[in-house]
Task: inverse folding
C-alpha cells in the first residue's frame, strides 16, 4: 500500500509539462540513437550526460531513462526492417521479424514488437514498484563486506553468462578495475598508476571509455564490413495496428512467460540477451505451430521482445536499490547519478524519495508515450538509416568527440576516445566482452572502497567477506554461478564418454 | 587471428606488469595508517591481468587447430578502417589549433567529398550547418564551451 502511495507521489513529480517534454525529447533522441550504427543506448546516454548537468536530477534521469527506452525501440526498427540487430538482445527478433517484413507485414511486426515492449515494461515496472523498496530495506543493513560480495555476484554472472571465453571476460573486468584505479588513491591520497605523468593524474572517465569503446569501435567494425543499409518498405496504417492488437491476446501465454523470464534474467547483469533467446526458445518449444518459427510469424517477434524490454526495465532494480547496474546503459546512468551528487544505493529511497519514485513513475508513463511516438514516426526513423553513410559516419564521429570532450572539458579525452575506439574494435574481434569492462570502470572506486573498508573491519582477515547472514550466501551464490559453466561442461564431457563406452 | 590474439595478450601482459610494478612501489604487504597498503589492490588486479594473458597465450599455442585461421582483418577491410581512423585522428590533432568546430567542418567536408563522393552543395551544407548548429546547442544553449583552439581570440567567440 505504501508503495502505491509513493507511486502516486511519483506521478505527481513526473507530470509537469517540463518533464513530459523531456521524456518526449528523450524517446525521440533515444530512438534515433538506437537506429544509428555506432550509437547505442549506452553511448547515447554517455554523450548526453554533460547536457544534464544543468537540469534538476529527476528531469535528468527521466531524460536518460527515456533515451534508454528509445534505444530499445530503435533496435527493433533496425532488426525488423533492415535485418540488422542494433543491440545483441535484438538478434532473436530478426529471426521472425525480418521474414515477416519481407512478406509485406512490416507494420504488423513492428506493432507487435512495440506492443510487447510495452507489456514487458508494464510487467517489469509492477515488479519494480513492489520489489525495489523491499530490496532497499534489506540492503540498508549491508556493510562493506556485503557490498563487495554483491560485486562478486555481479561480475561472476558476467563471466558465466556473457562472452565466449570466461578468461577473456575476466581480463576485461580486471582491465576495467585497473583503469578505474588510475589517478589519486581515494583512501590514502597517493598517486597511483600515473607513472609520473600529469595526463594520467585525472584518470580515465567512464563516459569517454563508453563513447570510444561502443561508438568509435562500432563504427570501425561497421565500415570494415561495408554494411549496406537496405530497408524494406514500411507503411504504417491504423488498420494494420488494430489487426495486430486483436491478434496479440492470443499469445498471452508467450507474453506472460517472456515477461517473467525477462524480469528474472534482467535482474542479473548482462541478462537481456539470454532472456530474449530463452523466451524465443521456450515459445518455440511450447507453441502449437512451432515448426513455423523462423518463417515470419508474430509469436516469434512477440516472445524475444517482451523479454528483452522486461529485462531492460528490471535492470533498473539493482541499480537503484543496490547501486549495481544490470546493463552497460544502466552503468552509465549510475555514473550520472554520482555526478549529480546522488549516492546510488538503498539510502536513495530514504533521502530522495521524490527522485526514485519520479523515476519509477516515469517508466510507466514514458513507455506508454514511447509506443505511441515510435508507431507514429516509424517511417521517419527508418529514413534516417537511408542517409548515405558518407554523411552519417563523420557526423557520428563529430558528435562522439563533443560528448567525450564535454565531460571534463579536457582535450586529452578526445584522444582517449580515439584510442578506446581501437581497443573496442580489437576487443570485439577477439571476443573480449566490452560491457563488463565498462561496468568495472564505473564500479571500480566503489569496489575498492568496499574491499578496503571490509578488510579494515576484519582487521586484515579476508574471512570478513564471508560473514553471515548476508555476505556468506551471496558469496556462495557468486562462486556457484562462477563455476557453473565449467561444471556443466565437465558433466557434458562425462556423459559423452559414457555414451561412447 | 591467432597473431592478433597473441599480440593483444602480450600488450595486456605488459599493462599487467606495469600495474603490479606500481602496486609493489606503493607497498603490498603490511598494514598502513588507513588499513591495507594502497598497493594491494593494484597488485591483485595486475596479477589477474598477467595470469589471464598468459592463459590466453598458452591456449593459442596448445590448441593449434581449433583456433580459426580467419585473418584478423578481411581483405580490403583495412583500407576502409584507415579511411575512417586517419581523418578522425587528424581532426583531433587539428582541434588543438583551430578548435573542434572548424576541424570538424573540415573533416566532414573531406570525408564526404573524398569517400562519400557527394555533390559540393551537400558537402558544404552539412559541413557548415552541423558545426554551426552544435555551436548554438552546446556553447550557447547548454553553456558547455567546446575547444576553440587559437581561433577563439581571432574570431571573438
Result:
Amino acid at each position: 500500500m505504501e508503495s502505491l502511495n509513493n507511486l502516486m507521489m511519483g506521478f505527481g513529480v513526473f507530470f509537469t509539462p517540463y518533464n513530459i517534454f523531456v521524456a518526449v525529447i528523450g524517446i525521440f533522441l533515444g530512438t534515433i540513437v538506437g537506429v544509428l550504427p555506432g550509437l547505442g543506448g549506452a553511448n547515447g546516454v554517455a554523450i548526453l550526460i554533460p547536457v544534464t548537468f544543468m537540469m534538476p536530477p529527476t528531469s535528468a534521469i527521466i531524460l536518460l531513462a527515456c533515451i534508454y527506452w528509445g534505444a530499445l525501440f530503435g533496435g527493433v526498427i533496425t532488426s525488423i526492417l533492415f535485418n540488422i540487430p542494433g543491440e545483441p538482445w535484438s538478434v532473436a527478433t530478426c529471426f521472425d521479424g525480418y521474414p515477416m517484413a519481407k512478406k509485406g507485414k512490416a507494420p504488423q511486426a513492428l506493432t507487435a514488437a512495440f506492443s510487447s515492449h510495452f507489456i514487458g515494461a508494464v510487467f517489469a515496472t509492477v515488479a519494480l514498484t513492489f520489489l525495489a523498496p523491499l530490496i532497499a530495506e534489506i540492503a540498508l543493513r549491508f556493510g562493506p563486506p556485503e557490498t563487495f560480495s554483491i560485486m562478486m555476484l555481479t561480475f561472476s554472472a558476467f563471466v558465466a553468462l556473457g562472452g565466449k571465453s570466461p578468461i577473456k571476460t575476466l581480463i576485461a573486468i580486471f582491465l576495467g578495475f585497473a583503469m578505474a584505479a588510475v589517478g589519486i588513491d581515494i583512501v590514502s591520497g597517493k598517486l597511483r598508476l600515473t607513472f609520473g605523468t600529469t595526463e594520467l593524474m585525472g584518470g580515465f572517465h567512464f563516459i569517454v571509455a563508453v563513447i570510444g569503446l561502443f561508438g568509435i569501435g562500432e563504427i570501425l567494425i561497421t565500415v570494415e564490413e561495408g554494411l549496406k543499409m537496405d530497408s524494406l518498405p514500411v507503411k504504417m496504417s491504423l488498420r494494420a495496428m488494430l489487426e495486430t492488437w486483436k491478434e496479440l491476446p492470443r499469445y498471452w501465454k508467450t507474453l506472460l512467460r517472456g515477461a517473467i523470464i525477462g524480469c528474472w534474467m534482467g535482474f542479473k547483469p548482462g541478462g537481456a540477451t539470454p532472456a530474449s533467446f530463452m523466451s524465443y526458445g521456450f515459445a518455440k518449444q511450447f507453441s502449437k505451430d512451432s515448426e513455423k518459427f523462423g518463417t515470419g510469424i508474430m509469436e516469434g517477434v512477440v516472445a524475444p521482445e517482451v523479454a528483452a524490454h522486461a529485462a531492460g526495465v528490471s535492470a533498473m532494480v539493482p541499480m537503484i536499490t543496490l547501486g549495481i547496474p544490470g546493463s552497460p546503459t544502466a552503468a552509465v546512468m549510475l555514473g550520472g547519478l554520482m555526478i549529480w551528487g546522488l549516492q546510488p544505493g538503498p539510502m536513495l529511497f530514504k533521502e530522495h524519495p521524490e527522485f526514485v519514485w519520479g523515476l519509477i513513475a516515469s517508466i510507466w508513463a514514458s513507455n506508454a508515450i514511447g509506443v505511441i511516438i515510435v508507431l507514429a514516426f516509424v517511417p521517419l526513423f527508418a529514413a534516417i538509416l537511408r542517409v548515405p553513410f558518407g554523411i552519417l559516419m563523420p557526423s557520428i564521429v563529430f558528435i562522439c568527440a563533443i560528448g567525450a570532450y564535454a565531460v571534463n572539458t579536457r582535450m586529452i579525452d578526445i584522444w582517449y576516445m580515439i584510442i578506446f575506439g581501437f581497443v573496442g574494435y580489437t576487443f570485439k574481434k577477439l571476443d573480449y566482452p566490452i560491457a563488463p569492462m565498462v561496468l568495472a570502470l564505473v564500479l571500480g572506486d566503489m569496489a575498492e572502497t568496499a574491499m578496503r573498508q571490509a578488510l579494515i573491519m576484519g582487521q586484515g582477515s579476508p574471512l570478513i567477506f564471508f560473514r553471515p547472514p548476508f555476505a556468506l550466501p551471496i558469496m556462495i551464490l557468486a562462486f556457484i554461478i562462477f563455476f557453473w559453466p565449467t561444471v556443466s561442461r565437465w558433466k557434458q564431457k562425462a556423459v559423452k564418454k559414457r555414451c561412447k563406452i | 587471428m591467432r597473431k592478433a590474439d597473441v599480440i593483444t595478450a602480450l600488450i595486456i601482459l605488459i599493462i599487467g606488469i606495469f600495474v603490479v610494478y606500481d602496486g609493489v612501489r606503493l607497498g603490498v604487504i603490511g598494514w598502513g595508517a588507513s588499513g591495507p597498503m594502497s598497493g594491494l589492490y593494484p597488485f591483485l588486479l595486475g596479477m589477474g591481468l598477467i595470469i589471464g594473458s598468459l592463459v590466453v597465450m598458452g591456449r593459442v599455442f596448445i590448441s593449434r587447430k581449433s583456433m580459426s585461421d580467419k585473418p584478423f582483418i578481411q581483405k580490403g577491410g583495412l583500407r576502409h578502417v584507415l579511411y575512417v581512423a586517419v581523418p578522425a585522428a587528424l581532426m583531433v590533432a587539428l582541434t588543438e589549433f583551430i578548435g573542434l568546430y572548424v576541424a570538424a567542418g573540415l573533416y566532414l567536408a573531406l570525408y564526404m567529398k573524398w569517400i562519400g563522393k557527394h555533390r559540393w552543395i551537400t558537402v558544404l551544407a552539412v559541413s557548415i550547418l552541423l558545426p554551426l548548429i552544435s555551436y548554438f546547442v552546446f556553447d550557447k544553449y547548454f553553456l558547455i564551451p567546446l575547444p576553440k583552439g587559437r581561433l577563439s581570440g581571432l574570431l571573438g567567440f
Notes: Chain A has one domain: 2-485. Chain A has a mean pLDDT of 82. Strands of chain A lie at 183-184, 191-192.
